[in-house]
Amino acid sequence: MGDLGNLTTMELDALADADGGLNLTDGHARLHLSPEQTAIVERIPQMFAEASRRPFPEVEREAHTAFLNAIGQHSAPIGTGRILSCYSSTLAMDIVARALPAGARIAVLHPTFDNIADLFVTRGLSLQPMSESELMAQQWPGAPVRAIVVTHPNNPTGLVTPEGHLRSLAAHAVQHGQTVIVDASFRGQVRDAQYDTCAVLESAAADWIVIEDTGKLWPTHELKIGLLAYSERTKIPIERAFSESLLSASPVVLLLVAALAGDWASGGYERARDHVARNRAVVRDAVSELGMTLADPASQISVARIELPASGPESTLLYKDMVARGVHVLPCAPFHWADPDSGLRFVRISLARPFAAVERAARTLVQSYSELSALTSMPAK
């Protein structure tokens, strides 16, 4: 396969491309602001003044209320002190990893974004993969697993954990003394994922942790927050781990999030959904010329996996060739963190980009794969 580094390394390479190559790697929203969003961003100077005069807890509660209500999380513990505002969802996950007992065995969804596994391993935890098929069959891991991590919707496949399945997982976790950890970083993009997760977990009296993210929704150049919420019954020292990492998120960013969440709830979601659907269609149509298909046709999140034919170049070679052509996408082997070879026939392309960029990337992928296939099929001299 060749060592290309982890997914974030490849995303950083795309951001730092001095030649200005197209970056369709990370799942962040890198779009033009809508007129409605532009009007909100133009108010940032006022938000600075507002942040200076208002108490931080008041600003934080307002942002939590606006954002969580906009994505259906009406039972989240707003105002209890059990929702912590972080700079990013990655930092929130690292705080959780540091708070879990050292050496504990953790079940993590497979495939999923590799930094979840990386963070846990770095913090001295032992990992056990849990496949999407096991999740859908409600085959939950037992002892010695201490916590079960579900990405909802999953990145890169877009799989949504059905409400009944989460209810089953919560009941299982209570019976086996486990913590349920839900990474819901892409939840805001998918209505089906916006059932009230905290209500489901609380009804089972489960020990739970839920991470939300605003960075996948709006093109705000990393002005975002990750929310780390947890149950009253958890014994994991989350607040201590949080205090070792940061003081607080910016109140200005919290005010920005509150305003953008208001727009999301009043038409912004539909505009973004239609844009992503249009971009997904242009990718699907372009790759169909080579007989390739989208691996997850029902996915609604702002990334798409393309399944490569069983014969022909693998995704690692395709990735390198596309970078040489000025287009960055992600090979999917690192998503399969416990079995990288199972991801070699997939690439992932971000759809939260301007239409012209996605269309060009799709055409480049088709050209790159066609030419690589011709080279690899030529008889040796």
TrEMBL record:
Coiled coil: none
Entry's Gene Ontology BP terms: amino acid metabolic process
InterPro entries: Aminotransferase_I/II_large, AspAT/PAT-like, PyrdxlP-dep_Trfase, PyrdxlP-dep_Trfase_major, PyrdxlP-dep_Trfase_small
Residues annotated as domain Aminotransferase class I/classII large: 73-363
Cofactor: pyridoxal 5'-phosphate
Gene3D superfamilies: Aspartate Aminotransferase, domain 1 (3.90.1150.10), Type I PLP-dependent aspartate aminotransferase-like (Major domain) (3.40.640.10)
Key words of the record: Aminotransferase, Pyridoxal phosphate, Transferase
Molecular function GO labels: pyridoxal phosphate binding; transaminase activity
Protein family: Belongs to the class-I pyridoxal-phosphate-dependent aminotransferase family.
Stated name of the protein: Aminotransferase class I/classII large domain-containing protein
Organism: Phytohabitans suffuscus
Lineage, top ranks: Bacteria, Bacillati, Actinomycetota, Actinomycetes, Micromonosporales
